[in-house]
Amino acid sequence: MEDHGKAPLDRLAEVDLAYLPVDDPNCPVPLLNTFAFARRMAQVEGVDIGCRVATNATIEQLANLGLVMRHGGTPRGAFLRTAAALPRHCTHEIVTVSESGTGIVVCDGWQWDFDAETLHAVQLNVASIIRCVCQMTGLDGTLFKEIRMVPHPVAGLDHAVRHFGCPVLPAPDRRLQVSIPGRIADTPFLACHSDLPDALPTREDWLRLRQDGTLATSARIALTVMLRGGLPTVDHLAFSAGTSVRTLQRRLGEEGTSFAGLLDDVRHRIAIEALGSDGGDIASLASQLGFSHPAAFTRAVRRWTGQSPKALRGQQKKPQSAVGPILKGGKSVAN
To answer: Whole-prediction pTM value?
Structure first.
């Protein structure tokens, strides 16, 4: 949208993503909100928007996942690496790569019952990303043998045929299936796409989103990002979880926690990390974390640690830091 002179904030706000830092593609974002955005974009900008937004720069824009793809060396290698790395990228997406006799079939499925309109919008984009990977070989023309995807409930599949230039058929099991000839799957990437740093993303800079599989863990990750746009409410979290507030509260209770407890944990962790880094002033940090006044923030820090923000900040300058004991009872968003 920005590349075409359009402000994305209103569209993001429609799906409760106004807080999203669009300049940080590695930032975790709730899946249901993202899919609602994709569906809305298809309604406003055209049913084939998923194809039109995928360009040669798309793989780089995928940040850490794009780096994993580019290290594959060939399309086959890229998709195999993507399938292995995906648990770090998305909680509900499953990619598989299988042999077809004359090439490979890349399948993309979702562990959520999305409606046909939404699923079609997303599958168009995923198929276009797969094509972008194949184009890194320098090959042109028709790159796929065939595609199977969920048809749009009104527009069908004709627009997909025009974009991909190959047969596009209804998917028998709601999964996207892209058949790629072997000669394309095994062609090396051009040198310009293989000139990469040796280091791949590490555990420290790429969250393992699935972790223990609890709702509380996912909620902590979501709340950490939501705080960038102000103090989130239980309604915001319920929307992102695809459930009612009552059901969300019940499920969190079954895990021995609550929305208020999770939000307090997240604010605690962010505050301690920020005070430890000695960056910014205490009033700004209090405002960032949604406290109405610095005095309220000071009371919260005393409750968490038994010390004032100024005392904690002063300890960071000493050779023997007291951060370890302070963090001992805290909860981390991700390992």
So the answer is: 0.84
